[in-house]
Amino acid sequence: MSTLSNTTASPLRAGSMILPAAPWIIGALLLCVLPWIFNNNSSITIMNQMWITVIFALAYNMLLGQGGMLSFGHAVYMGMGGFFCMHIMNYVEDFGVALPLPLLPLFGGLFGMGFAMIIGAFSTSGSGVRFAMISLGVGELIAACSIIIVAFFGGEEGISGDRTYGLPFFGVEFLKQIEVYYLISFWLLLSAFLMYLFSRTPVGRMANAVRDNPERAQFLGYSSRWVRFYSFMASGFFCGIAGALFAINYEILTEENLNASSSGVILLITFLGGVGFFFGPIIGAIAFTLLQTVLSLETELWAFYAGTLFLATVMYFPGGLAGLLMMHVPIFRLGNQKKLIMPYLKTLLPGAIGVLGVAALVEMIFHYRHAALGDNEMTIFWTTFDSHAILPWVVVGVVTALALYITKTNAPDLYETWGEANTPSGGGK
Amino acid sequence: MELILVNLIDGLVTGLLLFMLSAGLTLIFSMMGVLNFAHASFYMLGAYFAFQISLALGFWMGLLIAPIVVGVLGAGVERYGLRRVHQYGHVPELIFTFGLALLIEEVVQFLWGKNQMAYNVPEVLNFTAFAIAGNSIPAYKIFMIFISIAIFIGLLYILTKTRVGMIIQAALSYPKTVEALGHNVPLVFMGVFGVGTALAGVAGVIAGPVLGTFPGMAFVLGSIVFVTIVIGGLGSLWGALVASLLIGWITTFAKSYNILMSDILNAVGIATPENLDDNIFRDLWTITSPQIADILPYILMVLILIFRPYGLLGNRDA
Q1: Do A281 and A54 contact (CB within 8 A), yes or no?
Q2: Distances A367 to A166, A333, A351, A363, B268 between C-alpha atoms, Å
Q3: Domains of chain B, earliest start first
Q4: For testing the chain A interface, which of B26, B80, B98 should be mutated: the one with the most A CBs within 10 Å?
Q5: pLDDT at A425
Q6: What is the pLDDT of residues A16-43, one digit of tens each?
Q7: Which residues of B touch A137 (CB under 8 A)?
Q8: B interface mutation test: which of A129, A259, A370 has the most B CBs within 10 A?
Q9: Where are the domains of chain A?
Q10: Confidence band (pLDDT; 50, 70, 90) for A229?
């Protein structure tokens, strides 16, 4: 990670509490305005899912990015918070306790934190492989228990509840999707803000130090174990909040919220977005949710593309999408951005065509192998053709090969310009 | 008594199968310091390749060719994937193999579909070897035991008695020194990775017909393999053997003997509550051992990691 963090030079002093207000105000405004722009129900549903994932991914990055702890069972903390909240919802409905719904995530968070405290008590004594393995084991254990222990987890069918219980909160009953949207947005903003503040506290800073060099942190008199424990606890708290919001939004929780594939997905999202920056997971969650919802409508193979993208990110851009964006900051500081436009166009445009071409070939092979007998017609990129004829294969193959060839010939030019753009004018050559 | 013998054989088969996977994984770990999450995926690839080859050339050619193909693929992954990611540190390496596991599963679904393949035990071995008190033991199980033991002995011989094995062992502990002596250490690493994945491939070839060849087979076995090498001690070959057999026997015995949790609790001296339906802990009372057989290894691993973090036979420094 050390290669990533050297680009994060920020004007903020460590431990300083002065914050740049602009991103937060813009974020809050966007959250308020977005449902007016995309005002149909399905996009609000997508956005609800997105913001919950954002909270979860940010909480996960408190461990992975800021604390250097790789967890393979993190869905458990979100799921446990969610399950607990669902039980509170049902309890309140049955016994009529005055607990307004908007406060529910707080309880989910506290429960997630409590659970993280129990697990963290023995798992945080080391980072790396040991921590990863314990998290994997605990994750599998809880996921398996959720089927066996029916009283709490509801077995195979999970537990469900009703968010419109109790009295209206200032006249809002949370019947409509949009009301839930604003509730989620409020908690998103609050938790993101708190998580950012946490990363600025001495504990948050020590988490970075422990990630980079635990021995040295120990020599300075900090217990790396306690620092990891605090990060783990805080992460559990925000995961619990995400779980509670999940419970409110979907009104049902099952084993799926706890199992290993949910834990895998959040790792994928966080890494895709970029672990080196605070806002990385936000980008990752938005990109992945869009990919999941939009692409899965278009093709059955979306998980294949997502996996490929993930692997390419790990291999070539370990900084993730956020790292890719932040690589351009020095260039903008130097005022060299105009130099890059032409090489970018010359390389990335054929590159994009090449990638789409490869995707088309993959789709065609898939259709050729798996489509029902006699069903030879397929539609891709708004064109319908016969996948068993030779012509479409030749056309797509030639276009793809040509595009990839042009990309390859133009790439060195881009590298060179990139180097030039990163050199201050006057200095160097 | 007879049932114990039958279960011992069943557990031995499971354990040795697990060992073939964990042996490669633990070698790779001690070499590169990274847990290969995609290891079980290579096991799955082995089964699928062997199925495809067996359609054309029969089972035995599959057993011969598929592991080689898997090994070459594994070496390629090390050479062009892991070696590149290595520079970013251990966590990205782990994440890389994790992503690779996801991708291999998708690719397998893409090529062969989601259904189980008709990959069966070859005719030659499809008979009952012997019977113990009415429980027949298929010859294929005996065949699996022999293959696994042969591979273990071969591996042990190569690692401890041959020159190549000496270089590998030296390269594991002191890569810089071995490199200075003129050996190509990256090549050794690539070779070990290839052989490790080929072993997983062999396991896939012989397990495919009995456990089923389907896209989820890597996922089923994947995390158990990690559990095995963590329990045995990371990097220890003997530890991997002990842990594999332990897990094989524990799960087999838990599945075949229906031990009730309420009996255990009663034996300890806690009486069963009168009205079980209203009790919060009602599920605890109704747990049976076959129900929790599959999670016993995880419980064991968490306990081992808490009380003996370096595993049963692991090195304290590792």
Answers
A1: yes
A2: 52, 48, 24, 6, 61
A3: 2-257+288-307 (1.10.3470)
A4: B98
A5: 66
A6: 455 677 888 888 888 888 888 887 888 8
A7: 227, 298, 301-302, 305
A8: A129
A9: 21-319, 329-421
A10: very high
